Every structure is written in structure tokens, then in C-alpha cells.
């Protein structure tokens, strides 16, 4: 550390720690006021000073309150850390989602779940409960036509294990090639029963996806290149594999007609709807889902919550 560094360190201590004015610091050090200003600037550049701004509007509880008020939610949980790293966000919202779910679920409930990385993170963080008469229902098909895994059965298994529930899997692709084939499969008595259970669940736990070339749903082998182009140009997100536009409309009706599982309209009618989603890429998808009234409860991370509240 040279003399300039030492002088800068002394100046920033007097200015920031002791609360002296620049004129008082100049008098204390026997230098001019402009010199003090330069020393303080040098001290900040060298990292001798770290300034944090604590905006009360951006604390987790405050953000949660604002989300509740703006979107008419019953509860909004915002994870505290301000990280934007995908793995950290997934870990945080998974843990918070599992905790909120444990407060919502009660004996005798039927719980509908979707699949994906966020849902699997929730499942991994669930703590065992001694609940009775719990049904865990898969809300949409999850069989993949590619090397990518949807983690649907793993998620269902972990939910049942933690909630002491009975599993009701939907062992189908989430998207069929044509309506006729889909209708024939859905007419099967056992499949129809599971689909009906999904439409009548007491509590739904789901996430939303962004619509990008790298999105999991677009890489499961379900869609043709033309269909992918349509989705990328029209959709901003999906909930339970139902794609929607910025205005909350069905993005591509022809694709929606061959999709297996709960519809957006049916989802919005469930009494308790816990949406767990985070990350900058999902801001538009989450915002639109909230505007559509798809959720009664929300778990997200702080940077995402801040961006959602700024969204117009």
C-alpha cells in the first residue's frame, strides 16, 4: 500500500465512518477540499468503501406485499437473496415452495402437480408429513420423445413420499400428433378418471416456462420445426404445457387441442393454486400468468419479483 492509498483510506474512514464533511476531513488531514474529494474517489475505486442501499420497497416482505396487492394473491413469498444464478434461484424457490406447500396441504386433500426442474426442486425439499388421505395427481402427460427427462415420475414419487399420498400418474405424452388419437386415448376409462381428478384437485402446485429455443418443452420431441416457430413467435410462456400469449390468449389453438392435461381455464378454477417460478428469463411468463389469475399463491426470487413489479 503506497502513501496515496494510505491517505485515501484515512480520508474515507473520516468521511464515511466518522461522518465528517469533506471540509472537516480536509482540515483534519491538512489538505485542500478538492484533494479530499479525489482521495475519497480513489478509495472507492480501490475497494476501500462498500456502499449498500437498503430500499424498504425491495425487502422480501415488502415485495411480497406489493405482489399480493397488485395481483390479488392470497400470499406471495419472495426469497431473500438477490442472486440471479439459475442454480441458486432454483434451489431457493424450491425450498421456499416446499415450505409454503407444507402450510397449505391438509388431510383429505387432492394435490395436482406439474413437472420440470422447478417442480423437482420443490419435491426434493419437501419434508415428510404424517398426513392422511392425500391424493397426488399428475396434471399433464410427461412421457418424452427425446433424451431429455421431464422428471415427472421422480417428482410424483417424492411428493407422495413426503405427503404420505397415493400417486395418480398420467403415463402419456403431453402432446399428441393429432386430435383423433388424443381423443381416443383420453376416452380410456382409467385415463379419463385421472384427468377428471386433475380438474377437481383442491390444491395445484405448478410452474411456468419461458418460450425460448432452449426451453425444455420445446426439446422433448413433441413439436415440428414449424410448430416451434409458431410458439416462439406467439407465446410468452406456458403453464402445465398450455402456451399463452402476452394478452393471456391461447398461443396456438391447434397445438392446445392436442395437448393432454388440465387446461388454463380449468387451472384458474382450482381453489388453491401455488405458482413457483423464478429467474429473469421467466419474468414475462410469470407476469402474464399472474395477470391471467392463474395463481392464488406465489413463490419467486427477489430480482424477478422486482422486475415483475416494474412490468407494465
UniProtKB/TrEMBL annotation:
<dbReference type="GO" id="GO:0003677">
    <property type="term" value="F:DNA binding"/>
</dbReference>
<dbReference type="GO" id="GO:0006352">
    <property type="term" value="P:DNA-templated transcription initiation"/>
</dbReference>
<dbReference type="GO" id="GO:0016987">
    <property type="term" value="F:sigma factor activity"/>
</dbReference>
<keyword id="KW-0805">Transcription regulation</keyword>
<keyword id="KW-0238">DNA-binding</keyword>
<dbReference type="Pfam" id="PF08281">
    <property type="entry name" value="Sigma70_r4_2"/>
</dbReference>
<keyword id="KW-0731">Sigma factor</keyword>
<dbReference type="InterPro" id="IPR007324">
    <property type="entry name" value="Sugar-bd_dom_put"/>
</dbReference>
<comment type="similarity">
    <text>Belongs to the SorC transcriptional regulatory family.</text>
</comment>
<protein>
    <submittedName>
        <fullName>Deoxyribonucleoside regulator</fullName>
    </submittedName>
</protein>
<comment type="similarity">
    <text>Belongs to the sigma-70 factor family. ECF subfamily.</text>
</comment>
<dbReference type="InterPro" id="IPR036388">
    <property type="entry name" value="WH-like_DNA-bd_sf"/>
</dbReference>
<dbReference type="InterPro" id="IPR009057">
    <property type="entry name" value="Homeodomain-like_sf"/>
</dbReference>
<dbReference type="Pfam" id="PF04198">
    <property type="entry name" value="Sugar-bind"/>
</dbReference>
<feature type="domain" description="HTH cro/C1-type">
    <location>
        <begin position="17"/>
        <end position="39"/>
    </location>
</feature>
<keyword id="KW-0804">Transcription</keyword>
<dbReference type="InterPro" id="IPR001387">
    <property type="entry name" value="Cro/C1-type_HTH"/>
</dbReference>
<dbReference type="InterPro" id="IPR051054">
    <property type="entry name" value="SorC_transcr_regulators"/>
</dbReference>
<dbReference type="InterPro" id="IPR013249">
    <property type="entry name" value="RNA_pol_sigma70_r4_t2"/>
</dbReference>
<dbReference type="InterPro" id="IPR037171">
    <property type="entry name" value="NagB/RpiA_transferase-like"/>
</dbReference>
<dbReference type="GO" id="GO:0030246">
    <property type="term" value="F:carbohydrate binding"/>
</dbReference>
